[in-house]
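User: Assemble these into one structure.

Assistant: Restating your components, then the assembled model:
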Amino acid sequence: MLEIKNLCVSIEDKQILKGMNLKINDGEVHALMGPNGSGKSTLSYVLSGKEGYEIVSGSIHYNGRDLLNLDVDERANEGIFLAFQYPMEIPGVQTSFFLKTAINAKRKYQGLDEIDALEFAKLIKSKAGDLDISPEMLKRDLNVNYSGGEKKKQEILQMSLLDPSMAILDETDSGLDIDALRIVSEGVNKLRTPNNAFLVITHYQRLLNYIKPDFVHIIADGKIVKSGDFSLALELEEKGYDEISKSA
Amino acid sequence: MAATKQTIEQVNKLGNNEYKYGFSTDVDDIKSPKGLNEDTIKFISAQKNEPDWMLQWRLKAFKVFLRLPKPNWAKLNIPEINFQDIYYYSSPKSLKDKPKSLDEIDPEILKTYEKLGIPLVEQKMLAGVAVDAVFDSVSVATTYKKQLNDLGIIFCPISEAIKNHPDLIKKYLGSVIPVTDHSFAALNSAVFTDGSFVYIPKGVRCPVELSTYFRINAVNTGQFERTLIIADDDSYVSYLEGCTAPMRDENQLHAANVELVALGNAEIKYSTVQNWYPGDSNGKGGIYNFVTKRGACRGNNSKISWTQVETGSAITWKYPSCILQGDNSKGEFYSVAITNNMQQADTGTKMIHIGKNTTSKIISKGISAGKANNTYRGLVNMQPKASNSRNFTQCDSLLIGNECGAHTVPYIESSNSDSTVEHEATTSKINEEQLFYCMQRGLNSEDAVGLIVNGFCKEVLQHLPMEFAVEAQKLVAISLEGSVG
């Protein structure tokens, strides 16, 4: 699915990622854990193609293609999805209209006709219902005056509608209370198939109790310093980043 | 179609030298002689078979034009206009002068038609191609005409109204925009060629949106349009002007006058989508659009609402205004002005509160991209007797890129102590994070900009009649194409 090799990335001459390697296969869930400033969010932006990041060296291959050659929207339509740590507010744009626009962008890319209004209504009703998102919510402007939890649920709703093959969750658990965390996690778990993969970026082991990862990686100072299974997350919780990084 | 028939008639007339003022040499067979003088005005008046009082009115206006200086308050770079180098009567065009096919039209304009989903016949009509095919709107117009007649509604070209309804014309023409207002108003009064006339009788609610689009000869109204709408007591009308497709037009200068009169309890809703040719990306060509639009709420409890979407023209100079004379009368102004490339716009409104308990609301959204400049200029004036009156103004500017400009110039004058005037203004750049977010969801950069800007304009666009709103949304996106890299 995704293969990152020796990736070095700078922002305004400051090197953030310093030789990152990561391979994710179909059907796998990887957790990426690390302290603030270790390069977690940078990786998520580089994967989704945000401007302002200079690829100094290394490569990213996605389903056999050179991902770095694709524009942001191409990557999205090829199945890369980023659930934002801070989802953007878009005033004046009704949430349901935004969702429909996004679905149709993907359909257009795939050479399909626009989604039928009735089909869309049915689809959104069932998916929003799963995440405990009310129909009134969908009439509001996208993310405007949403609570932190509502924004995160909205990200998961978009994810479920766009059905990505490679989903990146950037600190989706931050700002969630325990109920929202459960709902969001269930939403993610529902989407898991043998054909897609997840990269879950988080500070805390808490989220991983709900979304069980196949692999856990610890990132420090721009590269992965230790990889393991779920037990690594537990060990991290116990010992803290410093000790694990030192022992690595 | 009737427009074609009319053209043929006009051409025939000219060919037979029927007109009174015997211009013969170097006269293009469908145009008045170049230049602005009394003869030109007499020519226009004769072309329209106008009564003498109308001609005299025009001549008086011309004298006023000669002595008034050009308005210079706008933040616009206006090239010197040589009024003697303009044809003042050039429509309707003869068939042979028209482009023979769409191949002769700027491909950029055709691309826009395609994006707006405009049918082929209509594309030809808009582009000014000689069309002989039956055009749908002819039958549409006929259907509406019958329905309107039954209600006593008058909806016709103003040239027809001058002949058939002289009393109404004499009473109201120039009563909202005096000839002496400023030089463009005087110029229009002297040389206007056509436009719409609407009269809604007492107590009648006009059942359809009136639109120049339905009027058969609408496309050929020319560069000096004159429109007069009168809503008598307890009546209602919604009027749509223009169309969302760019009109192919070689005229440089447009100076329209639009007057609205709302009597007791009457309401007029006037919507415009202006998409004249803006010039190319280097600022070559394009229309200079100097428009005077003003509505008078003469009766108590009357209401006038202007909604405009201005995306075209090289220069837009336009301040649709309301004179709130009647007690409890209401004025509204909702505006979206988009400038891209080298376009310049100086637009806004004037709300003149005269009556008691009058209210006005101004919502203006200016969007600048490329190297364009966009100015909101608005006056709120509370007269001494306008006690207990209110105004609310909100001006938001959005900048796309680093080379454009947005300016907000509010003028607030209050001459009484119990009125309230509120003004809110914001200026922001289009948010790169929002663009990235939309593109991460699969939208290409142009669709992302279109979506965000449409969201920014929503408060205004939602005031457009349904059939206009959808096209206007597409137009907003199209006007900003190429504005992000």
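The CA atoms of residues 392 and 422 of chain B lie 5 Å apart.
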